[in-house]
Design brief:
3 domains; Alpha-Beta Plaits; 31% strand; alpha+beta; single chain; binds uracil; four-stranded antiparallel β-sheet; elongated; Structural Genomics Hypothetical 15.5 Kd Protein In mrcA-pckA Intergenic Region, Chain A
Amino acid sequence: MERLQKVIASSGYTSRRKAEELIKKGFVFVNGKKVVELGTKVESNDEIVVEGHVLSVENKEYYLLYKPTGVITTTSDEKGRKTVVDLIKTDKRIFPVGRLDYDTTGVLLLTNDGEFANILMHPSNKIEKVYLAKIDGILTKVEQTALRSGVFIDGFKTSPAKVKIKQYSKTSNLSLIEITIHEGKNHQVKKMFEAVNHKVVKLKREKLGIFTTTGLKAGEYRRLTLKEIKKVYALRGE
Ligand code: URA
């Protein structure tokens, strides 16, 4: 059960403030009945009609962006920097699912479907995120073990990570490490490597659950297929 104005806003139809105005003015019907109470709760299968438009999945949009560096993961920035939403041509009020740092690249989903985003971000669903991190130096066996069993970042112990050494270059003294986690704390991967005294110089999210950047170049995006959307919904409540 969610508040009617929130459901209208998260459908992308309008802002929450405008949705409240429309409700108060009597332009919103739930299952055929006019609703003017702002606190009204609705269920996902309720039929909501706003100004004669039925809110439905037809209003929902789902994108997979290969986030390039140099864009921030928010819907707007007070400093006027380019955001991930600016990269996608749509008139819907989409938002990013989770966050990637300004200098991190890789898989980022954007949608105007709040429930879809919640499924992907809810910790209990343990969606795997695979990152490719370029770090300075060599990750010793002891450091690998530390990352695999969990390290302390900001007073929180990370869950066991999967760690694979992909490459080491003697000339540059840089290593390429694949690290898989399911949590999403702020700057988590960078802080995990910091905890074992390595600096991340480059970071890409290769995979988020079933999603990868395959077929896309940095800055490009595509719509999700219905099959992919259904696969995410199938994770609900597990
Ligand atoms: N971990 C980080 O440190 N940065 C990101 O952008 C994503 C995960």
